[in-house]
Design a protein that fits this description.
The structure is a single chain. By secondary structure, this protein is mainly alpha-helical. The protein is 73% helix and 1% strand. The chain is built from 21 helices and 2 strands. A two-stranded antiparallel ribbon has the order 1-2. Helix 2 packs antiparallel against helix 20 (492-517), helix 3 packs across helix 5 (118-145) and helix 4 (93-113) packs antiparallel against helix 7.
């Protein structure tokens, strides 16, 4: 039997850095440039250019742009569930990232080449959502796969470096792309006519560069193989996709008549169940869905099939599983190790749920905060006018400054004081801090509403940007680390997908409120501040009872 071309497991003895890390980090920097560059002008393009040209003006254009902006963001962060299943069950992380990166690049090309058309906007955004969303859980899990037992201590550092590169790429794009977009106002002829297309094309070029950088590292990566792969893996991926689309089709059918929506839900649900049954008949699975379905059926009917004596259990977790009314049948049928996977997933998801409110706040820096900034007077910094869409660049700059400060000063200080800064404690603190950022924007909006038009300086928005960035460092980076370290070995990408799903749920909430509630901005801001503090309280209570358990990739 020939040796595999690629390593399928990390070197468990090395203490140094894995050789594939630079390619993954370089890829992530370029990819984030492309995504945030496009997103930095998306709201402005829809609200001020495209929708007014279609007859929608004023508050209607702004509300619709906010709703569509967050609906797109929701799709980007919901589709990781599909990408995760494809990676874990069928293609593996490397091939999933490579193929979907090409789809991602095509989406940027469509946005650039069809500038000014509604069809081009929605087709381009759909391709970007599929590409960006599909690779998200795979890239962050893929970088973790490179580490073994002896260099596992570097995991926190690599996610710090990973996040630093994300913010380096987004900083450069948020400064450059809005400037190129605004360039049309000062140009004539060809450049004026095509400035928007050029602004959308540059991120596409960087996405293609990201794909090439990733491909260059193929020979030094650890390629963790999919399980089970082959036809069974294809059936797993297809059934999961259909089950996801039983709800996910709302991203595309939200405005259709109720009977169309109901029919799509029933059709996708039926297809997903049918494919799952076919897969189980070919070879019974012991994955997340199979275990949960088995436990649900045993719990409802009281009947267990093919039960066997359980394998030896770890003292604490084994007792919890064996005594669980829901999971005990899975322990008897599949064994403790298999049953522990879905149990861990549900435990982790119970922690993640409240994080959705944080993302509902954080992603408004690209929509409602820009809307507020357009009501304020701009200023020049170092001779350059700071545009409303460019102020977002303050966030990644602050992240790059705060990451080393938090990692080497703040966290060690708390440790020296005897207060262990666990992942969940950091995230709880971050959610509380995030609430204060929306108190700040609400106070700014109060000043705007009580003053003459454009009387309040745009620099006041630096205050909430500083606050929300501190919250981001505490919540987002830590969440990536927590999601990977706590995930069962076979479900690393899937747990990353669940983590990113919290971002999607937050954006869906903003989209619904923006489109249907018609709230004044100041009410909008106070509402989310209150929601954030309530979510932080619930998160802190759940986190207090969660027992962290690192799971190293073998």
């Amino acid at each position: 039997m020939s040796e595999p071309r690629f390593r399928t497991s990390p070197d468990q003895e090395t203490t140094g850095w894995p050789p594939g890390v630079p390619y993954i980090v370089g890829n992530e920097g370029c990819e984030r440039f492309s995504y945030y560059g496009m997103r930095s002008i998306l709201y402005v393009y829809m609200a001020n250019t495209l929708y007014p040209a279609q007859g929608m003006v004023g508050a209607r254009a702004a509300d619709l742009a906010t709703a569509h902006y967050h609906l797109f963001s929701a799709a980007v962060y919901a589709l990781p569930m599909v990408g995760a299943v494809i990676a874990d069950r069928y293609l593996g992380k490397y091939l999933t990232i490579l193929v979907l990166s090409l789809v991602y690049s095509a989406g940027h090309a469509v946005l650039s080449l069809t500038e000014g058309t509604m069809v081009g906007l929605f087709c381009g955004l759909a391709l970007i959502a599929i590409g960006s969303g599909g690779i998200k859980p795979c890239v962050s899990a893929h970088v973790g796969d490179q580490f073994g037992k002896k260099n596992w201590f570097r995991l926190r550092t690599i996610y710090q470096v990973f996040y630093f590169m994300i913010n380096l790429g987004s900083t450069l794009s948020m400064l450059l792309i809005p400037w190129v977009f605004d360039w049309q106002k000062t140009q004539t002829g060809f450049l004026r006519e095509h400035a928007i297309s050029i602004a959308f094309a540059i991120p596409g070029v960087l996405m293609f560069v990201a794909t090439v950088v990733f491909w260059k590292g193929r020979d030094v990566f650890v390629h963790v193989p999919p399980s089970p792969g082959g036809r069974l893996g294809l059936l797993d991926a297809a059934s999961s996709l259909c089950l996801f689309l039983s709800v996910g089709h709302l991203f595309f059918t939200g405005g259709e008549p109720w009977w169309v929506i109901a029919s799509a839900t029933v059709a996708f649900l039926a297809a997903g169940i049918a494919l799952f049954v076919v897969r189980q008949r070919r070879q019974p699975d012991d994955g997340f869905l199979a275990v949960v379905v088995y436990c649900s059926r045993a719990w409802l009917t009281g009947v267990e099939t093919d039960a066997r004596a359980p394998a030896p259990l770890a003292p604490k977790e084994g007792d919890a599983l064996a005594k669980s009314k829901f999971f005990a049948p899975a322990v008897r049928k599949f064994g403790a190790e298999i049953a522990r996977g879905p149990y861990a997933v549900l435990q982790i998801m119970s922690v993640f749920l409240m994080v959705s409110i944080f993302w509902a706040l954080f992603d408004q820096s690209g929509s409602s905060w820009i809307r507020q900034a357009e009501m304020m007077h701009t200023v020049k910094v170092l001779g350059f006018e700071v545009l409303p869409a460019q102020l977002q660049a303050l966030n990644p700059v602050l992240v790059m400054l705060l990451i080393p400060g938090m990692n080497f000063a703040v966290y060690p200080l708390f440790e020296q004081l005897g207060y262990r800064m666990t992942a969940l404690r950091r995230m709880t603190a971050g959610m509380i801090v995030a609430g204060f950022s929306f108190i700040a924007v609400a106070l700014i909006q109060s000043a705007i509403d009580g003053a003459a038009p454009l009387a309040v300086s745009i620099l006041w928005q630096a205050v909430p940007y500083v606050i929300i960035t501190v919250a981001e460092v505490l919540v987002s980076i830590t969440g990536l680390e927590f999601a990977y370290s706590q995930a069962p070995t076979r479900m690393k990408s899937t747990i990353q997908g669940f983590w990113l799903l919290t971002v999607s749920l937050g954006n869906v909430l903003v989209s619904l409120l923006a489109e249907f509630a018609k709230l004044p901005l100041i009410t909008f801001f106070w509402l989310f501040a209150g929601l954030m503090f309530a979510a932080a309280l619930l998160f802190g209570l759940r986190a207090h009872f969660f027992v962290e358990r690192d799971v190293v990739q073998e």
